[in-house]
Design brief:
- The protein has 352 residues and is of the alpha/beta class.
- The chain contains 15 helices and 12 strands.
- The chain has helices at 3-17, 53-64, 78-87, 100-103, 108-116, 125-135, 163-169, 192-202, 219-231, 246-255, 270-277, 290-293, 308-320, 326-336, 338-350; strands at residues 28-30, 46-48, 69-72, 92-97, 119-122, 142-144, 176-180, 210-214, 238-242, 258-261, 282-285, 301-303.
- It has a 6-stranded parallel sheet with strand order 9-8-7-10-11-12, sandwiched between helices. A 4-stranded parallel sheet has the order 3-4-5-6, with helices on one face. A two-stranded parallel sheet has the order 1-2.
- The chain is elongated.
- 42% of the residues are buried.
Length: 352
């Protein structure tokens, strides 16, 4: 599950908890879901419109008539937002803005919805700045609204490497690097290719180092990654683990001596705060929203994602100093726990 989906689940849960407090009613509509997880949002108040998009859009227009605030979960819903504003000019339109979807100059309905939105919730300061500059938006209507740790995330109370994963990957005597992401041919900004290029340098100090890349991949991108592995002669060092089940995600963070994803196109990066919440050493890029996720370096190491040598130096330092830390976990909780996320939403609703 990607970061935007995780954000929306937490957002819906926080909204539902405001019913009876500062909101008299809350309803939700999705163009992509077939069901709703009632831990996050009540089924009776949710329309899962996958395969019924026209119906979902028409229902949005009808339900908007009785709403004071309409919140769009993505700029791709610009058609819905623009139609609602045309039908009901006094309704307040909010938009959540994530990453590369809004960093560039928008056109058509997407441009229109950015300008008619009464409030934009940007997941990072980086996204706020890029979006405002590219689309000539008043920064005063953009609020920074960071992602959070999932409300049902299980924070580990010990940081021992899971034996079953050491056995599965045969890494009981090796230093382990780990990245969790989709391997998508349309998203070549995650930085795992730079980590692969850094492995020949790192092998000088850590001969048996292993790099585990977790996450589904499309055929084209997997072929590119395998070619890159071969070109760098690191076939023995890289493990393409594929899909990681939810129940194993935290254990994989604990297995790693360093979680590394030197991205240059991340709107925020929930995986960084999940890794830090698991006490892991985290290395991220310093040219995107990853800086917000790592609290400008307070929760991990920020490095130039284009500089393979700088990346290798940062990884080497983290491996030498490796120590899963309860302090890092506690700082992450303080900054990005779901409770703080829900409180921020309440504050935004009150000031609407």
């Amino acid at each position: 599950m990607g970061g935007i989906e995780k954000f929306n689940k937490a957002f819906l849960k926080a909204l539902s908890e405001l019913k009876g407090d500062v909101l008299s009613d809350v309803t939700g509509i999705s163009l992509y879901d077939t069901t709703v997880d009632e831990r996050y949002f009540p089924e009776a108040s949710y329309y899962a419109g996958a395969g019924k998009r026209i119906s979902a859009i028409l229902k949005s227009l009808r339900w908007a008539a009785n709403a004071d605030i309409i919140i769009l979960g993505h700029v791709n819903l610009a058609l819905v937002g623009s139609a609602i504003k045309a039908l009901y000019p006094k309704k307040k339109i909010w938009l959540t803005a994530h990453g590369i979807d809004v960093w560039e100059r928008q056109t058509g309905l997407k441009k229109q919805v950015l300008h008619i939105a009464d409030r934009i919730l940007a997941v990072s300061d980086f996204t706020k700045t890029k979006m405002a500059q590219a689309n000539r938006l008043e920064k005063t209507k953009i609020s920074i609204f960071h992602n959070c740790i999932d409300p049902f995330f299980e924070y580990p109370d010990n940081f021992e490497k899971p034996k079953y994963l050491q056995e599965r990957y045969k890494v009981d005597q090796h230093k382990v690097l780990y990245t969790l992401t989709r391997l998508n041919s349309g998203e070549k900004y995650k930085g795992y290719d730079k980590v692969i290029e850094a492995l020949p340098i790192l092998r000088k100090d850590f001969p048996g180092i292993k790099y585990i890349i977790g996450g589904k991949g499309d055929e084209q991108e997997l072929a590119r990654v395998k070619q890159l592995i071969g070109e760098n002669g690191v076939e023995e060092n890289v493990i393409l683990a594929g899909f990681i089940p939810d129940e194993e995600v935290t254990d994989h963070y604990k297995l790693a001596d360093a979680f590394v994803m030197p991205s240059k196109g991340e709107g925020f990066g929930i995986v960084f705060i999940e890794a830090a919440a698991s006490g892991a050493n985290v290395i991220a890029g310093n040219k995107d929203g990853s800086t917000d996720a790592l609290a400008n370096g307070e929760l991990g190491t920020l490095v130039d994602p284009e500089d393979v040598n700088a990346l290798a130096i940062a990884i080497r330092r983290n491996l030498i100093q490796h120590n899963h830390s309860g302090d890092i976990q506690q700082k992450t909780k303080e900054l990005f726990a779901y409770k703080r996320f829900a409180e921020r939403l309440r504050e935004n609703i009150i000031t609407a």
